[in-house]
Amino acid sequence: MESHASPEVSRFIPAAMILALVGWAGLGYLFLFTLPTLGPRWLFFFLGVLALTGSFLPVVAFLNRRFPSTPPPTPVIILRQSLWIGIYGPTLAWLQIGRVLSPLLAFLLAVGFVLVEWLLRLREKSQWKP
């Protein structure tokens, strides 16, 4: 692997498959065999984060590979970026349970997540030495 390239997408496939399989299978079991009491509700949010993180991990890895940046993202950065997507979905579901979700709020929440990630990458860029 080159020193100035992001990791290959194939490195993330096993982790993505495990996360997605556990998340989606758990959500399927949760929907089919449980009642929406307090415990399963929190389990829904946890499994939702796992399912979305695992599903988007290869996509995020591919996008980081396709659009390189300086410094190149490490596997931890790629996992963090896919975790932002994984957190975004259950957060929208949680807001919808309380009937406070609106398109504007969903957009502002997405902008906030993108802004935090951009600031983290800006900090890493300022400390990077080739």
- Assign the structural class, choosing from mainly alpha, mainly beta, alpha/beta, alpha+beta, or little secondary structure: mainly alpha
Query: What's the number of domains?
Result: 1
Helix content: over 70%
The parts where pLDDT drops under 50 for at least 5 residues are none
Q: Which H/E pattern describes the elements?
A: HHHH
Summarize the structure.
This protein is an all-alpha fold and 130 residues long. The chain is built from 4 helices and no strands. The radius of gyration is 17 Å and the shape is flat.
Give a written overview of the molecule.
By secondary structure, the chain is an all-alpha fold. It has one domain (9-127). 75% of the residues lie in helices and 0% in strands. The chain is built from four helices and no strands. It has helices spanning 13-33, 38-66, 75-97, 103-127. The two termini are 16 Å apart.
